[in-house]
Write a structure and sequence with these properties.
Acid phosphatase 1; disordered N terminus; alpha/beta; five-stranded parallel beta sheet; single chain; Rossmann fold
Length: about 270
């Protein structure tokens, strides 16, 4: 008899709970559902403005997340947007945010005294800014001119990206061994070293450039192979900083990789 009474009591409580929940969520329309219905109506009827700034900001998002895939030049309608972004406070702020997160991770690494804890940096649009060149070449709206860019590299006047220079020095102070891994060619070594020193960088362990055997390789393959060589030497690649996904992806990847902003060009 007691068992039956307990069963009836539990059944009554359960029925009351279900009935109450049902009346609130379906018959009474709960506030949560009302919110969902309202949101649904907004998205169903809202028209996306035909606005260049909005379009170009969304385009930049697809670039930075690598959703855009292979692309060669920025959309013509986005030239002013990219100009404003790269020459304004937003680019500096985004670069600083990446540097801050990089340093936060670096602070979690127990750096050994053996000198084998490495940090790999790309150079162009990572440590050095080629913005003076791109100001004169449409901010990435023109097909890449290798001859013109090589001439710019030979001038060795690219300025440092301030947040990256600060990060570079902080990592050195913490005992990381710095490697520079760039897509520049071996014949540009002297100009690259001169530019790096002029911009404030020093005491890197090794500057790695494309040699004759690397000609024709995609950047992802080339940089992966060079990182693998470092690993084979016993280095522990703790961090890797680059403005291109091809700087960071592939094999022999770092413990943590950090992508800097660059809406001006894409390298596979």
């Amino acid at each position: 008899m007691a068992y039956a009474q307990n069963f009836i009591a539990v059944l009554f409580i359960s029925f009351t709970f279900v009935s109450t929940s049902f009346s609130q969520s379906i018959l009474g329309i709960s506030p949560q559902l009302l919110d969902l219905f309202a949101i649904n109506r907004v998205f169903r009827h809202r028209k996306i403005p035909n606005d260049n700034a909005l379009y170009c900001d969304s385009w930049r998002f697809t670039v930075e997340t690598n959703n855009a895939g292979l692309w060669s030049i920025i959309p013509e309608r986005c030239i002013s947007f990219v100009q404003d972004y790269t020459t304004g406070d937003r680019y500096s702020s985004d670069s600083a945010a990446v540097a801050d997160l990089s340093l936060a991770f670096a602070n979690t690494v127990k750096v050994s005294n053996d000198g084998m804890d490495a940090w790999v940096f790309d150079i162009d649009e990572t440590l050095l800014s080629n913005l003076p060149y791109y100001v004169a070449h449409g901010f990435g709206s023109q097909i890449f001119d290798e001859i013109a860019f090589d001439k710019w590299v030979n001038e060795a006047n690219a300025p440092a990206i301030p947040a990256s220079l600060k990060l570079y020095k902080e990592l050195q102070q913490r005992g990381f061994t710095i490697f520079l891994l760039t897509g520049r060619s071996e014949y540009q070594r002297n100009e690259t070293e001169k530019n790096m020193v002029h911009a404030g960088y020093s005491n890197w362990e090794r500057l790695i450039l494309r040699g004759p055997s690397d000609k024709g390789k995609l950047a992802t393959q080339y940089k992966s192979e060079k990182r693998k060589e470092l690993e084979d030497e016993g280095y522990r690649i703790r961090g890797n900083s680059g403005d291109q996904w091809s700087d960071l992806m592939g094999f022999a990847v770092a413990q943590r990789s950090f992508k800097l902003p660059n809406p001006m060009y894409y390298i596979a």
